[in-house]
Design brief:
single chain; 268 residues; alpha/beta; TIM Barrel; eight-stranded parallel beta barrel; 34% helix; cytoplasm; IGPS_HisA/HisF
Length: 268
């Protein structure tokens, strides 16, 4: 039997509130995180991700009280990311009630955090978030990826909420995080984030084909068709969205019914 595909609402947090922007900029308030997460719980979300998007930039930890409140009220897996730099940070977040942690900037700065986290808490607890941006200047040793217009680019890993280019090839990094024990990859393309023009399919597909762990596609959903494309053309294991859920354009139930009608195995 085919594994069911997951639909995951993502709540970007700033100062304890849910926010949403475009290309990680121009943030607007979208509500209380626990209230929104409870709504998604009722609608049949497979899990929820909380990302404290300014924690790394501001050099502080994640909002523990929000996690505790959410864990008390929700009956679905909760992944938390943002500002996680040490094993102690991971311990605190899992103790507060999260099921998984998502690490991004700190994993790039100290890749051993992935292996140490996986060893201590199990691979299923460690999600590595990879934010990427297309780089048109091809370089030796980078993975060439053909865009729909036939142009070849490579995708660079960016950190600090998309503001810091690292020079790291995204495909090679995805393979390394798998080797180090990550249980899952949360892939966000800065090219499409917040645009509602659809997922960045070329990089999603390439990474999905080059690793053996689940890949969550993120960044760019605007229509029901985009979820379908994420699974079929992007070969993702899960699709993540934010604003289309926060502002009530679709319910999770609507998305799942649409996908089921098109032959995608989902949990209804």
């Amino acid at each position: 039997m085919a594994l069911t595909k997951r639909i995951i609402p993502c709540l970007d947090l700033k100062d304890g509130r849910v926010v949403k922007g475009t290309h990680f900029l121009g943030l607007r308030d979208a509500g209380d995180p626990v209230e929104l997460a409870a709504r998604y719980n009722t609608q049949g979300a497979d899990e929820v991700i909380f990302l404290d998007i300014t924690a790394s930039k501001e050099g502080r930890g994640t909002l523990i009280p929000v996690i505790e409140r959410a864990a008390d009220e929700l009956f679905l897996p909760l992944t938390v990311g943002g500002g996680i730099r040490t094993i102690d940070d991971i311990t605190q977040i899992l103790r507060a009630g999260a099921d998984k942690v998502s690490i991004n900037t700190s994993a790039v700065n100290d890749p051993s955090l992935i292996s140490r986290g996986a060893e201590r808490f199990g691979t299923q607890c460690i999600v590595v978030a990879i934010d990427v941006r297309a780089n048109p200047a091809m370089e030796e040793g980078k993975t060439p990826i053909a865009l729909d217009n036939g142009r070849e680019v490579w995708y660079e890993v960016v950190t600090m909420g998309g503001s810091h280019p690292t020079g790291i090839d995204a495909v090679g990094w995805a393979q390394e995080v798998e080797e180090r024990g990550a249980g899952e990859i949360l892939l966000t393309s800065m090219e499409t984030d917040g645009t509602k023009a659809g997922f960045d399919l070329p990089i999603t597909r390439t990474i999905s084909e080059n690793v053996g762990i689940p890949v969550i596609a993120s960044g760019g959903v605007g229509t029901l068709e985009h979820f379908y494309e994420g699974f079929t053309l992007g070969k993702a294991d899960a699709c993540l969205a934010a604003s289309v859920f926060h502002y009530g354009e679709f319910t999770i139930r609507q998305v799942k019914e649409y996908l089921a009608g098109r032959g995608i195995p989902v949990r209804l």
